[in-house]
Amino acid sequence: MKIIIGIGGVTNGGKTTLTNRLVQTLPNCCVVHQDDFFKKTDQIEVGEDGFRQWDVITALDMESMVNTVKGWQENPVKFARSHGVNLSPEAEESNPENTGLHILIVEGFLLYNYKPLLDIYDKRYFLAIPYEECKRRRSTRTYTIPDPPGLFDGHVWPMYLKHRKEMENSGDCIEYLDGRKSRDELYNEVYESIQNLLLNNS
Fold it and tell me: ∠165-118-104 over CA atoms, to 5°?
């Protein structure tokens, strides 16, 4: 059985923290981080707002991301091995028709705004936090390329609102999570939800 879980949400909403914890506790679990597919800085356009357009889908090599997910779908055992994931003895059998459980978490800020990926998820989560909390968390983070002054209000937050509206209008079944909850609360909520998903699919 192969299960794909999406953990999307606003910047600094707690996606990576939650994902890293789930990866440690779910069996035979691999992860694809959308942030790994950002294009190089010189390929990122400068928009009418005067900022490099990091928070839009064209800033990412989505074709490569889709291919990575497909690679896992085709052979989760091979994918796990090449990514250094420890598999259970049952899952170690190289048979691609393996009936063991394999889980892929796809984590990122624009997971539900790209058509070729929309139908792959068995479960979609979305972490949200209010504007003030998001701005506060963002200001405490250190990025490889530091945020220029005014980026959050001039680009990051407006793009988040735009993409969230698109996502909500798509009609997809998404489970919203309150990113202000403690790490333990969020983890327990999602872990339990995934266990129910696995029970219903077994």
Answer: 120
Interior CA angle at 85 toward 79 and 86, to 5°? 125
Are 113 and 167 in contact by the 8 Å Cβ rule? The answer is yes
Reported pTM: 0.91
Of 183, 164, 195, nearest in space to 16 by CA: 183
Q: pLDDT tens, 170-190?
A: 877 999 999 999 999 999 999
Short-list 121, 128, 118, 82, CA closest to 103: 121
> pLDDT tens, 14-57?
999 999 999 999 999 999 999 999 999 999 999 998 899 999 99
Q: Provide the 3-class DSSP secondary structure of residue 177.
A: strand
Q: Which two tokens stand for residue 164?
A: 């969230």
**Token digits for 139?**
């200001």
Q: Catalytic residue positions?
A: 35
